[in-house]
Amino acid sequence: MSQADQDFGKVAVLLGGASGEREVSLNSGGAVLKALQSQGIDAHPFDPASEPLDALKQFDRVFIALHGGYGENGAIQGALEIMGIPYTGPGVMASAIGMDKLRTKLIWQAAGLPVPEYAMLDDDADFAAVEKRLGLPLFVKPACEGSSIGVFMVTKAGELQGAYKAALEQGEFIMAEQGVMGGEYTVGILGDEVLPIVKIEPATAFYDYEAKYLRDDTRYICPAELPPAKTAEIQAGALKAFRALGGSGWGRVDFLMDAAGRHYYLEVNTAPGMTSHSLVPMSARKAGLSFEALCVKILAGAHLG
Questions:
Q1: pTM passes above 0.85
Q2: Is 267 noted as a catalytic residue in this protein?
Q3: Which CATH superfamily is domain 118-178 in?
């Protein structure tokens, strides 16, 4: 069956929203909308920040291109479940857990998957002791945000407390995480398929919001130049990590490498970016899927439950 012959009915592309990642979502959703329409699909934009969710009842399927906030934390997935409208990406539980970096790490640790050392911070934390245990550099981040929003790199002793206070402006629960500095990578998941690994080489100190979305000097290597056995090990672990959270449909698992070549799974994205800078479309192209074909395949996997 050709793409044009598939009948998806009337499709809503959820974009925008009210999270700190609104602008990224507008870009992702706009690209997805254009791709679906180019394939003859009856797709329409839908911004939940300005339209009542009840209006989604006129649609047959939903492509979720929301990032952060309730677009990725299971809330919109729960609303669609109640309305009986199939949607793309993981379900309620996987989305909620995936947005929570602490609970993601706890599940991955229980599953025997390697993660960077970390500590949760509060006003009474012994910041000097955390710096000593995790070592420098380390990273401070909100536990329930994405796109590197509110992430700070601590490189000098005594800076952790200030970074913690700055991160509090972006989230309530703050995590300190060991700096694993041997390379930043990501793996896309599409159904049961693991896409080629992408290595990310930012010109900035780390892969921050600016490097992800605003700069043109971030370098991407796909497929990553890793030994075949290591590639297979990491891809199998990424699929295990995705499934451990209950992930389905599509998503992205980020990981880090240390100088000795050991890898550590960092976080999962349950509604990855679909912009010109985004990593899943880049990886899919290496696997032989155009952006349009990728969008249609993701939409075809829309589900309930």
A1: yes
A2: yes
A3: ATP-grasp fold, A domain (3.30.1490.20)
